[in-house]
Design a protein that fits this description.
7 strands, disordered C terminus, about 30% strand, single chain, Immunoglobulin-like, alpha+beta, 7-stranded antiparallel beta sheet
């Protein structure tokens, strides 16, 4: 009788442990932007540079629009990106093209960059896609029709749809145009090839 009782107790313990192990091993579904977040480096983020293709400029394109170097600003940008949803195709007509340049540092030196194309459409949608930066994305001047060639180079599939525009993440007063970066920062930007 004691052996039978021990067998039941042992089976009960094994059953409980099995239930506990199975319950603990369930994987949570990742949030929609998890795949995009995984593209970020584990290195320390130093800055996020925002470049904009503009028709109304005499400068080479894309030109630097703003810089986010404060950690709270960088976290806000990453949170904005993490709320994205992967979509098969970029939908709509591109109205504005931007390049987000993520700068990383190791041992207080710039060690790497990552790039994402950000598109605002005429239909009011916002899309983002990682890409490999190269010379074909640098133009002497920009016309709206150049956007088609740029998007063709990036590819029209495997984009991430965002729930709001970048300018909604930060009000205009929070961005730092190049003119407000100060002379030493401006000189650094002018003499350093970030692409």
């Amino acid at each position: 009788m004691a052996v039978n009782s021990r067998t039941h107790v042992l089976r009960f313990v094994i059953l409980c442990l099995s239930a506990l192990v199975c319950g603990c091993s369930q994987q949570q579904a990742p949030h929609p932007g998890a795949a995009l977040e995984s593209l970020f480096h584990s290195g320390k983020g130093k800055a996020i540079w925002v470049h904009h293709y503009r028709e109304d400029s005499i400068k080479a394109q894309p030109e630097l629009l703003s810089l986010y170097s404060d950690k709270t600003e960088q976290i806000a940008v990453v949170d904005w990106i993490s709320g994205s949803e992967k979509v098969e195709q970029l939908r709509g007509t591109a109205d504005s093209l931007f390049i987000l340049q993520f700068e990383y540092e190791t041992a207080n030196k710039v060690s790497d960059y990552a790039y994402m194309m950000y598109v605002e459409t005429r239909e009011g949608e916002h899309y983002l896609k990682p890409f490999t930066m190269g010379p074909k994305f640098h133009l002497d001047s920009y016309k709206q029709e150049d956007g088609d060639a740029i998007l063709s180079s990036v590819g029209m599939d495997q984009w991430y749809k965002l729930d709001k525009a970048l300018h909604d993440v930060f009000p205009p007063a929070a961005t730092k145009p190049l003119e407000q970066l100060g002379k030493s920062s401006y000189a650094m930007v002018e003499t350093t090839n970030y692409f």
